[in-house]
Amino acid sequence: EHMKRTLSQGAYPTYVFEGIVFIYMGPPERIPVFPLLDRFNLKGVSVRPGLRLPFDCNWLQIKENSLDPIHTYTLHMIPQTRGYQQFSDEFGIVPLFIWAETPAGCMYLGVRHVGENMWVRSTDTYGANLHMISSIVETGRQRKGANAPFMSMWTLPVDNENSINFYLSHVADDEKMPWEKRREIEQFGQYQGERPYAERQWIPGDYDAMSSQGPINPHSAETLGTLDRGVVMFRRFVREGIEAVQAGKDPKGFFLRQEDVAPTFANDYVAPASEAAGNPDDPEVQRAFAEKLALQYLSQPPMARWPK
User: Fold this and answer.
1) Which strands, in side-by-side order, build the sheet including 3-6?
2) Average per-residue pLDDT in the chain?
3) Which residues are CB-neighbours of 33 under 8 A, at least 6 positions away?
4) Where are the strands (E) in the chain, listed by range?
5) Most exposed: 124, 129, 223, 254, by fewest CB within 10 Å?
6) Quick check: 165 and 55 in contact, CB under 8 A?
7) CA-CA distance, 291 to 298, in Å (whole number)?
8) Residue 52's closest CA among 172, 193, 223?
9) Is 48 helix (H, G, I), strand (E, B) or coil?
10) Long-range contacts of 238-247 (CB under 8 A, 24+ apart)
C-alpha cells in the first residue's frame, strides 16, 4: 500500500513512493526491489515527502558528511550562538564517537553524558546514496530505547560537480513542533541559494560546509585525523562496491528480494548513566558503552524496539 510500481514497455522500471519517483537503470533481470525500510511503516509515525535541494558539488562529499559527526558539535552549534535555534542545545556537549559497518553500509554512534543519562545518537548510510538521521531536536533528557525517525535522505549525482538531495520526513503523531517550523529547520542551510552569501557566512549550514570544499574535493590535499574514520570507512565502502560490480558481484545495500532488505540504525538511545558501569565522563567508559550498544543494534536493530 506504500508503493506504486509501473513498468512501461521498453522503459526502465519506475517506482513512485510518497511522491518521489525512482527510476532503476540496468539489466532487467537484475532489478533490485525498492527497499521498504523498517522505518517507513512505524505505528504512530507518518512519512511525508520532502523537497529537492540542489548542491553545486560532487555527491561523494555530500554523503561523507553523514559519517563526519563532529560537525554537529561545531557547525550546527553556530546558529545557536547567533540567534537561530535549529538543533537542541544538548548537541553542544562534546561527544565521543565510534563507527561500525552494517549489513547495508556504515553507522556512527555518538555518546553524550546529559544530566543523569547517557544519550547515544546514531546515523547510518545505506548503500552509496542514502542515509538516515535521528531527531535534531533530541535533548537526551527522556529515557528511551528507540526514537521516532527524523529524515531519510538520498543524494542524486546530476553530473561530476552538481547533485540533488531529496528526502522523506518522518513525523510522529505526538510531535510537539508545528509542521511549518519542522519544515523550516529541515531546509535551513541545506541547499544552493537558500540565503544570501553573507548571511550563510555568518550562520552557515551543511550546504556551506560541503560546497566550500569546491565542486570536487581534492583528496590529495587532505590530512585526515581520528575523527575522519567515518569518511575513510565510507570511501572504502564505495570503492569495494565498485570493485564488486566490476567482478560481477552485488555491492552491499543491493537487494533483489524485500525479505532480504537490511535494517537501519539511525536512532536516539537514552539510558541511565549507571548503565555505563563506570564514570560516565570517562572516554573509555563511553567508548565501551557505545561499542556494546553497536553490537546490540546489529543483533536487534533499533526500529525492532518500536511498539507494534
Assistant:
1) 3-6, 14-17, 20-23
2) 91
3) 255, 256, 257, 258, 261
4) 3-6, 14-17, 20-23, 45-55, 96-101, 105-114, 117-126, 130-133, 151-159, 162-172, 267-272
5) 223
6) yes
7) 11
8) 193
9) strand
10) 238/60, 238/128, 241/127, 241/128
What is the DSSP code (8-state) at residue 291?
H
Say which residues have a Cβ less than 8 Å from residue 92's Cβ, sequence separation at least 6.
Answer: 73, 77, 80
Closest CA to 297 of 264, 274, 250: 264
Quote the CA–CA distance of 286 and 162 in Å, as a whole number: 39
Query: Can you list the alpha helix ranges (DSSP code H) found in 155-282?
Result: 179-187, 197-202, 206-211, 229-246
8 Å CB contact between 165 and 62: yes
Q: Give CA–CA dist 236/254, Å, rounded.
A: 17
pLDDT band at 142 (very low <50, low <70, confident <90, very high): very high
DSSP 261: P
pTM: 0.90
Integer Cα distance of 202 and 84 in angstroms = 11
Q: What are phi and psi of 186, to 5 degrees?
A: -65, -40
What is the rounded average pLDDT of the residues 13-37? Answer: 72
What one-letter code names the amino acid at 226?
T
Q: Could you read off the pLDDT of 181-213 as tens digits, one per residue?
A: 999 999 999 999 999 999 999 999 999 999 999
Residue type, 31: I
Residue recorded with cell 544552493: 192
Cell of 39: 522505518
Close Cβ partners of 79 (under 8 Å, ≥ 6 residues apart): 85, 86, 87, 188, 189, 203, 205
Distances (CA, A) of 39 to 149, 170, 232, 296: 7, 8, 27, 18
